[in-house]
From TrEMBL:
<dbReference type="Pfam" id="PF21348">
    <property type="entry name" value="RGL11_C"/>
</dbReference>
<dbReference type="InterPro" id="IPR041624">
    <property type="entry name" value="RGI_lyase"/>
</dbReference>
<keyword id="KW-0378">Hydrolase</keyword>
<keyword id="KW-0326">Glycosidase</keyword>
<dbReference type="GO" id="GO:0005975">
    <property type="term" value="P:carbohydrate metabolic process"/>
</dbReference>
<dbReference type="InterPro" id="IPR011050">
    <property type="entry name" value="Pectin_lyase_fold/virulence"/>
</dbReference>
<dbReference type="InterPro" id="IPR049366">
    <property type="entry name" value="RGL11_C"/>
</dbReference>
<dbReference type="InterPro" id="IPR028994">
    <property type="entry name" value="Integrin_alpha_N"/>
</dbReference>
<protein>
    <submittedName>
        <fullName>Uncharacterized protein</fullName>
    </submittedName>
</protein>
<feature type="domain" description="Rhamnogalacturonan lyase family 11 C-terminal">
    <location>
        <begin position="570"/>
        <end position="1058"/>
    </location>
</feature>
<dbReference type="InterPro" id="IPR000743">
    <property type="entry name" value="Glyco_hydro_28"/>
</dbReference>
<dbReference type="GO" id="GO:0004650">
    <property type="term" value="F:polygalacturonase activity"/>
</dbReference>
<comment type="similarity">
    <text>Belongs to the glycosyl hydrolase 28 family.</text>
</comment>
<feature type="domain" description="Rhamnogalacturonan I lyase beta-sheet">
    <location>
        <begin position="476"/>
        <end position="555"/>
    </location>
</feature>
<dbReference type="InterPro" id="IPR012334">
    <property type="entry name" value="Pectin_lyas_fold"/>
</dbReference>
<dbReference type="Pfam" id="PF00295">
    <property type="entry name" value="Glyco_hydro_28"/>
</dbReference>
<dbReference type="Pfam" id="PF18370">
    <property type="entry name" value="RGI_lyase"/>
</dbReference>
Amino acid sequence: MKKPCFKSLVGIAAIAAIALGLSGAIPAPKYKTVTVNAPFAMEPIKEFIFPNRDFSIANYGAVKGGKTINTKAIAKAIKACNKAGGGRVVIPAGEWLTGPVHLMSNVNLYLSDGAILRFTDNPEDYLPAVMTSWEGMECYNYSPLVYAFDCENVAITGTGTLQPIMDTWRKWFKRPKPHMDALAELYTMASTDVPVEKRQMAKGENNLRPHLIHFNRCKNVLLDQFKIRESPFWTIHLYMCDGGIVRNLDVYAHGHNNDGVDLEMSRNFLIEDCKFDQGDDAVVIKAGRNQDAWRLDTPCENIVIRNCDIIKGHTLLGIGSEMSGGIRNVYMHDCAAPDSVFRLFFAKTNHRRGGFIENIHMENVKAGKMQRVLEIDTDVLYQWRDLVPTYEERITRIDGLYMTNVTCERTEAIYDLKGDAKLPAKNVVIKNVHADEVTKFIKNVHNVENVTEENVTYGRFRNAANAPAYDYSKLQKEKLGRGVVAIRENPAEVAVSWRYLSSDPENTAFNLYRDGKKIAEVPATTGTFYRDAYKGKKAATYTVKPVVNGVETGHIEGNYTLPTKAPIGYIHIPLDRPADGVTPSGQAFTYIPNDASIGDVDGDGEYEIILKWDPSNAHDNAHDGYTGNVLFDCYRLTGERLWRIDMGHNVRAGAHYTQFMVYDFDSDGCAEIIMKTSDGTIDGQGKVIGDAAADYREPGTPANQGRILKGNEYLTVFNGRTGAAMQTIDYVPARGNLADWGDNRANRSDRFLAAVAYLDGIHPSVVMCRGYYTRTVLAAFDWNGKELKQRWIFDSNTPEYKAYAGQGNHNLRVADVDGDGCDEIIYGSCAIDNNGKGLYSTGMGHGDAMHLTKFSPDMPGLQVWDCHENKRDGSSFRDAATGKVLFQVKSGIDVGRCMAADIDPTTPGVEMWSWESKGLRNIKGEVVNPDIKTFSVNMAVWWDGDLLRELLNKNVVSKYDWEAGVCKPLVTFEGVVSNNGTKATPCLQGDILGDWREEVLLRTEDNTALRLYVSPIATDYRFHTFLEDPVYRISIATQNVAYNQPTQPGFYFGPDLKGIFRGYEFKK
């Protein structure tokens, strides 16, 4: 095969060496050799030993300081060095401004420690044009910043830095029409054999950026130790070079097309011990484009890359797509990509390239996250597809790709091999490759022959696009009953509704009975709602029986008794209000019904209410003062109290102290309650936990008074039926040193959150959390009915998770966001994976409100709408699986409230707004309505039976009038009040009973009763109860956590629904 460039260089070098040696003027050059082991024959690489002569640019008129342009002075030093037979051209410590640096043979450009060679960004400084190559096509273009042409024994070494000024080049990153026209012109000239000297591209608005380093047709190249900080185009381009070493480089360049090293039609190179942090690929092996490369007929071959790291970038090892001269014998080993890349090994070409790819090896590589571990793509054309025509079709021959001993944390796919049908790729070997997680597919093979796979494994499969992806055949869920409820709508009518369950066939109808007499046949074509004309004053028992094909099936029947003198519009639940009390400081307090949760404590398929009683002197963590004891009661809907738990005086009262998780954790059909306790807590059977005499309250006068800075903390599981403590263990996360959390007053250390999560995709776990302003710790536990076992603990003090500190909210959300069938915890601006490892952190910090759901049926996976306190990040909409910001409305104030609900049928998906969103926004971030003064931002509820959501604020349900652009009151609940101050939240909001719509639980004004409001509005829609969706059910369980947030499901719900959804078929 012809290698005209290499042969001429070798010949010239040999003749010159003989002549110089005979003359005695200059000693023959000396070399040391580097032997490289590879799975192919590789001749030793010669490393030139430069003569011990230094030529400081300061001695040739260079002036440091970054203001004087030193191009001519540096050129003088280089010329003198070359004329003397070689040596080092020294760039001393300091900043030196220059235009292009053109090296010569036997010259080592030495960057002293502390030296910064700064390159101007004036394109005129890089004229006249020189012979170079632009994306595989030879031309005359602006000079590279460091350039060597037809040189031998040429080097850049030292610990200093090459750092171009980037202002102009960044503007050139864009590709406007004149630039694209210039590329098309160059492509046409190269494709039609226009002589290279006539391809003059450094003109007008062509804006073909120069390389940072471009060595063209050089021999014995050395690049060693120095640092690179940014580059106009490809960073290091070694073009048609023969022999060389690239080692110990620290390359950072995050602009457009900023590859790390591009070896093009070069041979016999070693790249080792380099660090790449790139805006494009790290190491790329190329061999020219189309006709130009066919003309030059010079393959790229015998390349070894070892012990290199890529911190950021697109690809660790790229082959092509400029590869028309052929690429063979490439060996990468013992490298790492610890963070994230697009691909580890990417062979890319297209039907215009021809050439070949053969005998390419990668082994012993460890990596973090990526899209593909190995990929072949034979249809990579990028912008060229439509920009220029195909002058000649040549298919690339691909034969022999070998990947061995490769591991990664996460990848979308392990291998994706897409050969060309006209000439299939062949002989691909993939051995001992493991991915901890795969998120899209395992492998794809198309038009590739003889793929050998051995020990290719993965830990788990997840697909965020399909999230959530629970395996309902394994998921341990509650055993729900029919949830029948009846409320008096008016003196003459009673509204009855019940659950439609996923176990009901779609053609299930229902028979409705009152006091044993059938009063209605409710068909499968309407909602599970019936309005009964019943004027009687006596109690009436309503029974619902499912019917299939005219026959009552006996499958989960249910009943509810409307009480005598039933109130209109709600269920009255009388309470056993605790006695008033007095603190040690003499302050009197009363009790107020606060947050509530639900759980089936007795296994009958219907929920009881777990109610937290807060004393009237409950405090925020920021405030000193004693508080009364926190109490918990369990009530049936009739008002029957089953038990009371007294948390004792060592548990302070306030929104951030006691988060209580009510759920059937051991899947025995009855719910448990898990919460933090302390010495003196009295369970529902009167048994004291720990030391009843212990009193950890600070007696301060008044500083720190009532605060609890020390003492035992416990985690207790209570029996839901009896309130008895079943097991108590030390609380984790432990308090430890108060200062570790941000202060010494237990303000930040006592910020607690909690959650229920299906961390293994089967069993519900409890997750107890501490801290979010600074240190953040989450601990997961499993309850098997006998003992609590710690599953994992996450701590932002762990060095690898320091970015997670300070990211938590006053609430959290739980869902399978990454499609692996297991729940993750969305902890404010960060996410914790189901295995207790960090999933991502956006760095946007703490916030007060957050919403997680599927915002549109057309969007993959789940999304998060969040607001932030940092007076910078405002409100953000992000992908729940990756943290990728989809849009953001920045703000210079503390944005304390945000809301997400599908309230407008004229725009797709769920709408979003916040205090500083500058209006109502759609899923694209577009402002739908700039005026949101009538919009509340506290809670929401599905109330009136259409597919839109209503807003809930205090005791008022409002409806958005999208035509008028305002929210209007729909219903006001009289005689009741909300909780938690300006947050104005109910005791609970959610689908507690009845059909798919939600109920609202509020306390009466005199704090003696709860009222459960049920919608009396008929609806024709019937959907499987949302309670069967883990995301929705857990959002009820976690609603009591700190700053309460409304329920939200793991699916889109709104007017964009179509087809069959949760057992209901929408009409076309």
